[in-house]
## 1
Amino acid sequence: MTSQTAKIELDKQTEVRLGGSLWRQAFRHFIRNRSAIAGMILIGFVVFMAGAAPLIAPYDPNLSMIGLPGHEGRLAGQAPCIHALGCPPEMAQHLMGLDLNGRDMFSRVVFGSRVSLVVGFASVFLSIIVGSLLGLVSGYSSFWTDNVIMRSMDVLLAFPSLILAIAIVTVLGPGLQNALIAIAIVNIPVYARLARAQVLSLREMDYVLAAQSLGDGNNRILFMHIMPNALTPLIVQGTLGIAGAVLEAAALSFIGLGAQPPTPEWGAILSEGRNYIFTSPHLVFFPGIAIMITVLGFNLVGDGLRDSLDPRLNKT
Amino acid sequence: MKRVLRLFALTMIVVLALGLMAPAFAQDAIEPLTPNMTVTDGLVAYAADSCDYGGVIQSITATAANQVVFQLCEPDGAFPQKVAFSSLGIQPYEHLQATGGGGEALFRNPVGTGPYALSAWNLGSDVVLTRNDAYWGELANEPTAIFRWTSESAARLNELMAGTVDVIDNVGAGDFETVSANPALQLLPRPALNVFYVGMNNTIAPFDNLNVRQAIAHAIDKNRLVEQFYPPASTTANQFMPPDIFGWTEGFEDTPYDPEAARQLLADSGLELPLEVTINYRDVVRGYLPQPGVVAQDIQAQLADVGINVTIEVMESAAFLDAASAGQLGLFMLGWGADYPDATNFLDAHFGQGANDSFGTKYPEIIDLLNQGSTTSDPQTRLDVYAQVNALIRDNAIMIPVAHGGSALAYKAGITGAHASPLSNESLAVMADPDDDNIILMQNGEPGGIYCADETDGEALRVCEQIMDTLLAYEVGGTAVVPSLAESFSSSEDGLTWTFDLRDATFHDGSAFDANDVVMAYAVQWDAANPLHVGRSGAFDYWTILFKAFLNTPAS
């Protein structure tokens, strides 16, 4: 065996040991990251809650218990009643108590996960699509196109994101759909800048030059060669962005511009109970915890993905 | 020597003559602003050409420097209660002139005769008042009084418990027990002199359909709303007025809660079901509506049960009030707190000739009855009239009275002079804080302006009441009318002439208070053609509520 052959053999072994591809390496690194796994568990929990909401929730989230059997007296903001913890059996069980309209808080928090996840995923998806396109075009286009697009993005970035979202919803009108659009719009510049930065570095790569030499058109080069290689940071940013989008949706609903009553949305539930923190703390505790778990989950996963996909960070 | 004496005598004669003529020169300082205004011997009179303009007042005359006479077009049994209301606070005529009758120079810089004078209005933060040491009555206990505000009841309670404020208004519905159980605080419930109602505009579809309005009246379970969402001392409303207001109809039969009847009425309405409607409200806590969002959602659920799908739309407070007044809202939640304890303040203000367009087209038969009620002095006749009015309101389902909300103030335990006024006009002058030299009251919101002739919000009126006096006033913590800038008053037998004898008082700017100030303070509100009829928004809503019509209202 010559030394050259031995080197090739060693490289093959190393490749096999490391898993062969960047994605596989990243996956292995990711599953070794305990924080990221904890984040995945939290997200999994929330996703399961959202998917199985009708099975988990004991009541219709909009059903008021006023006048129903097992519900006597003043129900607004009634504390949790758990039979296993000594709540009288003649009283209906409510794990998280009742809200101010006498609705089951547990059911509302469970169904609220659907709203938050939909807004989080959908707004980030919209942001990534539009932002990436703008960034790709900007990075690969002429000076003027690049300037117009990026200066527009700078203008959007100059506003605090929540203030801009409030302004957009004020124009569009309150509602979950408009809140989703507003959150998507305010996050577009983040993805546009990221995508542009990727294009600026990738367009100088040898394989791009090779494609140009072979006569590939700009669109083909942009969408077949550059975009796939620019996706990694966008995905990482998108995962972190979901956490931000969930928070922004909750904030918009908290001030009455997002989900409209009686939609069970965590920010709206929190807002309704904010004046009862002294007498009925469960009204703010449970939706607050739900928001925290979701945001924490996506942040941990986002950090884990970044660590795994960034070759400078996953040198372990 | 003789010459000198002669010259001296001549000089004295000239000086004496000038002195005697001085008042005449001073009289000339007041110029008539409109044809309805006359100045005679320095005394101002303002008079309508006739009573055809539709208002209550025919003339206001300063008959002496300390006497004002009101001539009415029709008897008004509640006239003393009306002139005690804070929208009729007296400011110096010179100040009204200097400010052009409006603008920030007036509504951010009031000059009154009250126990406190405005010291500073830090926009968005607080209003600071300083004791008026030249006050004609008993001086305020504390040298400084401060108004602060936040719309969050939990934040108000938090501030009180932290000791950064001395009094909070509108304790949260869920916090009554918390305050009662805290030995460092005292809870003072306020009588429920208010009404929360669901309003409908009979010019906006589908509320132009009587069946729909009646169906909604049947579909709302008022008892459930009061039991579940209102604090103690609240009661279900079976008519527009609360029981403690004169004119309340004993044994009145309200539209019963009957969802089945509601469904039948909707089916008979000829409209496509389910109905899709929008309910508007402002997310502002008031004694009559302590939990607006919660109540709105329960009404939404109750109406959904009979086949009406309701979309809830929260509006900014001022925009909501403007839209409701202009008759732009089909279905809305609003309320009313007593300004003075008489049926006219509730019924005339909402269903009378001077009412705004919030319920759409007015009902002439109701207006006739209300005119009859307000011009009759016999109590039993008035009660009979108001019973008929209540029945007409119910039968036409003009709006649905829901609740009379109990509310409360919370004080630090050591505050003396603590009281809860049924009219929400707590006097800071009688309160004292043993811990420091000020009294700080935290209320729901910031005043829009402190020229209360052109304000309707209680947050503004309460501040005005500390600064400006009216001819008469309401007793502290009560509703009885007591003398204020008028030491005494009397009326003619026919109830058409009211004479007020004024006391000596000094405005905060050092000028003397006199009858001309009273005439002009009223006239600039009354006469729409007066160049000083400007105000903040120019609406002067309370004038028409109190006295039915403006003088010289433009045809448009």
## 2
Amino acid sequence: MTLRIDIPDETFRSILAKAFGNTAFVAGFVITVLILAMAMVSYVWTPYDVTKLVIADKTQGPSLAHWFGTDHFGRDILSMVMVGARNSIAVALVAVGIGMGVGVPLGAFAAARGGLVDEALMRVNDLVFAFPALLSAIMITAIFGPGAVNAIIAIGIFNIPVFARVARAGALAVWPREFILAARAAGKSSTQISIEHVLPNIATLLLVQGTIQFALGILAEAGLSYLGLGAQPPMPSWGRMLFDAQTRMVVAPWMAIFPGMAIVVTVLGLNLLGDGIADILDPKSRRQR
Amino acid sequence: MTAYLLKRLAIAIATLVLASMVVFAVLEILPGDPARLMLGMNASADQVELLRNQMGLNAPLAWRYLHWAGGLLSLDFGRSYTYSVPVIDLVRERLAVSLPLALIALALSTIIAIPVGLFSASRRGRAGDTVAMGVAQLGVAVPNFWFALMLIYVFAVWLRLVPAGGFPGWGAGAWPALKSLLLPAVALALPQAAILARVTRSALIEVLNEDYIRTARAKGLPYRAVLWRHALRNAMIPVLTILGLQFAFLLAGTIIIENVFYLPGLGRLVFQAITQRDLIVVESVVMLLVAAVIVVNLVVDLSYAVVDPRLRTRQ
């Protein structure tokens, strides 16, 4: 490995220009903004009331009145998908927040201290990684009771070692650089250096990992609520909608198709966004394309 | 090399011991008394106390941990509260479904992903690469249980080629059993294959930029030989790492997929045991899965040395 020193010749404007030229970024950005907007709009308006059961309209196929059809209680699937977006996004976002909030300081601390502290923290990390995340999330939600809050905690806990690992690896690459040496010579403490110099330099890495974990969080939340361990009815959630759809596949396949598409589009958007950001800000990955 | 092996082995064992303590401790602090659960709400306090004594629940914590851990080592997992049979019998019966399922899925994922990765890396930036990676990008975003539902709709409901769920048992013959594992395995494998194809591609591209690849080409080796013999072998380490991680993912994935297809596997067993608070089953199966993950990762670590001779001689 050679040590490469990046000269920051990129102005905000040049980054922006590059961003608009990057297909993955633009596509990911547009999809993500649309999904977020859909979730926001659902707070003030949905085509139909998702709590109102209209048995006369049950399991109707897609039509002009109900674009995505209706479910077995006559609820409008489009409206439920919109409201479900809120739940998915909230759970995944807060879980990423937990992972970053705890994991990044841990990783940065391990890199700054090195030695035994580093070794111990990384071994704990290995320990957490030995537990299949979904299995443990199922255990946590089943034990402490199903619900959105426990789903957040269950998913968040397994984000911690991921961010700790990324932050540590990034920080280890930054520490040998000259400007760190200069900061040390100026008498700054390792905590100060970590916050003022290391963190800004690993922010990109964390942002990219953040979008990946956000996407994984959406998938995990869908899995948990499919098993009945996520948000509880009558609050619609994408996973729960798929569970309800399963036994009605023959008569109402749209009940399964649309919530699933919502998950796929959201996760795809976030992954494209992450790939795009990585491409734009990391010259190494750009060279490889 | 020997020192490295020993260190890896020691870490794996230490992780396993710590994991067993965590599992034991978590289930220990759980609300709910298994004896009370077994006897029902109408049992008197004396009856519950008697059963607690019989079940050894009143013994000191450390003794109970050692007893449990010792039992695990001798494959004596205790008896299930809800099924009233030894847990080991349950595990053995369920493993006959889950293990083939996970292995078929892993094999499928590898068989699809490595050629796709090779194809994409050797046509980097061209139309074929763009299409393959677009599909992979989509594959990563698809939740396996939704994909499973779509597969059921197309192949079971519509085309009626395979059963929509359930498992006839191996006693019904290998083909009917395999047939009912086919859709679940595909549902588990495809999202994993998408990830693996992406990793294979980027690892290969990294290697293809190396000087020795240019040398191999310059001395007149055909591109195909360079790709398979030189590039793929050198790109194997990240691919193996992901394969190891995916094993854990597949094991956990079986929990949801077995629920979708009503397969009587380990995942469904542990899920039901969790919801029914059959703690002995939960702790045994969780430990088994954790041990499997640790062992697989250890094997992956050791296989680096097989793939890359440089690691064998390094101190």
